[in-house]
Amino acid sequence: MEAFEKFFLLRVNTRFLNPAKLIARKIDSPKSGEGFTITAILCILIEYLQAYYEGCVYTTSKEPNLYEYSSSKALFVNFLTGHAPFKADFSKKDAERFYDDIRCGLLHEAATKGDAKIKALGEGALLEKSADGFVINRDALLTALEEYIRRYQEELLADASLRINFLRKIDELNGVGRVLYFAYGSNLFKEQFEVERGVFVHTSQTALLNDFKLVFNKKSTVDRSVSFANLAAIQGETTWGVLYEIDSDDFERLGRVYERGYNRKDICVGINARQCRAVTFISDSLCDAAPSRNYFDRIIRGASEKGLPLEYIEKIRRESGLYL
């Protein structure tokens, strides 16, 4: 992957690995304190690498949205317990201790906590637990991180989901915005959304919007004898749809060119028992006409393609009045 070599690897080397190696080479004594600086750099790198692996973006919000994180501890622990060669040395408890007593100690207080220590032990074990304390070998840590990066490149080539996560992080770091868009009408239909309208979909998954009902009362800007899909706020009703992860530019073009007469609406949808913030289109330009048969068939085909619940598909089919 070109982005791996020209962006990811370049940044990892110039901002993390090379500075750490340079500091290690320039010391006059193995006890001159440089281990703290080297390990602090590598701790930041651990979180950076795991954010790529999980495809998540940092936020200061206390309620991170889908693909976001606000606390780095989970990333740090997941990295040490989930990847070779680290997982051979770190249990969850050890990984949490590394985070609390070394990573947080260094970054917040410029000191390790308790009996945690950092040593230059050459080719010794990465982690040593003994009467001498909880000891991280900063030389072995650097070597292990370089090994992980080589393995990660191989995994990227073999795993499409990892590539999706990788590119999400690349886009974020390069200022390419993305939007979580909830589609409930004809944009469910792949041929329309991705082919005819040319929207690139990074990810998609079924989602449930509570307290809104799918209705057909949006006034056409061309043919006043037909209506289009809309959402009506009705307590207790539910609307199934698809949450698309798309580029911000595509979303803006979608609204400007294809969703005229609709307004952007911020909503919360449910995905796998969690709520996430998204946007959709709702119109206040209303009419009292039925949808065209061709338009409604696109919605049904799209709903079937995306695996929406059969009972929901039958409900909207029945309520449309087109199949009586």
Give a quick summary of the entry.
This protein has 324 residues and is α/β, with parallel strands linked by helices.
Oligomer: single chain
- Tell me, rounded to a whole number, the average pLDDT: 94
Radius of gyration: 26 Å
Structural class: alpha/beta
Which overall shape is indicated by the principal axes computed on the Cα atoms? Answer: elongated
Main beta sheet: 3 strands, mixed
User: What is the domain total for the residues?
Assistant: 2
Strand order of the largest sheet: 3-5-4
Characterization of the model:
This protein has helices spanning 2-26, 34-54, 73-82, 92-109, 138-158, 160-173, 190-196, 248-258, 293-305, 310-320, and strands at residues 57-58, 68-69, 116-119, 127-130, 133-137, 178-183, 201-219, 227-247, 263-271, 274-282. The protein has 324 residues and is of the alpha/beta class. It folds into two domains: 2-173; 178-320, Hypothetical upf0131 protein ytfp (Roll), CATH 3.10.490. The strands form four sheets. It has a three-stranded mixed β-sheet. Strands 6-8-7 form a three-stranded antiparallel β-sheet, with helices on both faces. It is elongated, with a radius of gyration of 26 Å. It starts with a helix and ends with a helix.
Topology of this structure?
Blueprint: H1 2-26, H2 34-54, E1 57-58, E2 68-69, H3 73-82, H4 92-109, E3 116-119, E4 127-130, E5 133-137, H5 138-158, H6 160-173, E6 178-183, H7 190-196, E7 201-219, E8 227-247, H8 248-258, E9 263-271, E10 274-282, H9 293-305, H10 310-320
Helix pairs in contact: 1-2, 2-3, 2-4, 2-5, 2-6, 3-4, 5-6, 9-10
